[in-house]
């Protein structure tokens, strides 16, 4: 615990030098940074970051790894699969600490209290998909832990848009509320509605640039969400290596459920699948509208591939 306090103290005292950040900082940015530093000081010195300790020796600690997104990219599947590893302790719910002001204002002690109990050799993981597309989050995560290892799972941007709509649509159906067709969101004045939030979330190039201002690329592992659905084991192997975990997860931990149409998990003889809300069929979309969507994402995708130094099998 002393080492944790010392690390937090050093984080506050040391200047945050990020070569890729603008040399000129606006008054608003300077004020924001000042407020965040004061929040960290308040958290460390007032609450002393005292994690609850269980009688079995486990305790709560700040996460060393965060799944930052993307929404409808497969974050829940990734977390469930990663939880097969005995050295992973995962927070059950999305904490929204860095993107919700009321949560962030509670300080790091509150954040730690949302984490699961873990042993010293385990890695604590938190998942909040909205982090990836929030402008404030990268700097806030950086201020907490500059050595954080980040997991980002992405899928075909067009498919992600359809999944985004599908989730909101079914949420309304369950509440017996009407919801417009997807065409009403995608088309505005006869053109593709680029102001639709679901489309903005799929502009990976834009959001990734923001994260790379604070974290080098070798601290962000990108999981191919499309491949994770079709053949999860190779993708999880890569995650194990990135997190420097011993290879504990194997192919026998996955089996294809023909009824559900996707892979489920097998752990110590116990089988489990993702919630029924996962893997829902997308609405039918006119092929010409899909073409417009693919065309719109073509250039941002190309820039994203150049930015991260790899390609993906997207439209």
TrEMBL record:
EC number: 2.8.2.-
Annotated Sulfotransferase domain residues: 63-299
Disulphide linkage map: 264-273
Gene Ontology biological process terms, A to Z: glycosaminoglycan biosynthetic process
Keyword terms, alphabetized: Disulfide bond, Glycoprotein, Golgi apparatus, Receptor, Signal, Transferase
Transferase keyword on record: yes
Binding-site list for 3'-phosphoadenylyl sulfate: 72-76, 155, 163, 263, 278-282
Subcellular location: Golgi apparatus lumen
Name of the molecule in the record: Sulfotransferase
């Amino acid at each position: 615990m002393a080492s944790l306090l010392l690390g937090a103290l050093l984080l506050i005292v040391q200047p945050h030098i990020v070569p890729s950040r603008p040399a000129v900082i606006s008054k608003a940015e300077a004020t924001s940074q000042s407020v965040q530093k004061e929040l960290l000081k308040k958290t460390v010195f007032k609450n002393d970051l005292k994690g609850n300790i269980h009688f079995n020796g486990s305790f709560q600690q700040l996460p060393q790894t965060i799944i930052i997104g993307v929404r409808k990219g497969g974050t829940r599947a990734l977390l469930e699969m990663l939880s097969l590893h005995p050295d992973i302790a995962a927070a059950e719910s999305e904490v929204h600490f860095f993107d919700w002001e009321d949560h962030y204002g509670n300080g790091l002690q509150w954040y730690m209290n949302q984490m699961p109990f873990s042993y010293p050799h385990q890695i604590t993981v938190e998942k909040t998909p909205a982090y990836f597309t929030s402008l404030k989050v990268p700097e806030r995560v950086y201020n907490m832990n500059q050595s954080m290892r980040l997991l980002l799972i992405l899928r075909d941007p067009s498919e992600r848009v359809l999944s985004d709509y599908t989730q909101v649509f079914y949420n309304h159906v369950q509440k017996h509320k009407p919801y417009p067709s997807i065409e009403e969101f995608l088309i505005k004045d006869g053109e593709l509605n680029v102001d639709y939030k679901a489309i903005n979330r799929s502009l990976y190039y834009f959001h990734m640039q923001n994260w790379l201002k604070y974290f080098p690329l070798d601290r962000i592992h990108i999981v191919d969400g499309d491949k994770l659905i079709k053949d999860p084991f190779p993708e999880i192997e890569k995650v194990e290596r990135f997190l420097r975990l011993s290879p504990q997860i194997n192919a026998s931990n996955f089996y294809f459920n023909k009824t559900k149409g996707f892979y489920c998990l097998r752990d110590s003889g116990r089988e489990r699948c993702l919630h029924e809300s996962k893997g829902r069929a997308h609405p039918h979309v006119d092929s010409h509208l899909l073409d417009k969507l693919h065309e719109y994402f073509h250039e941002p995708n190309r820039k994203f591939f150049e930015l991260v130094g790899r390609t993906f099998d997207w439209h």
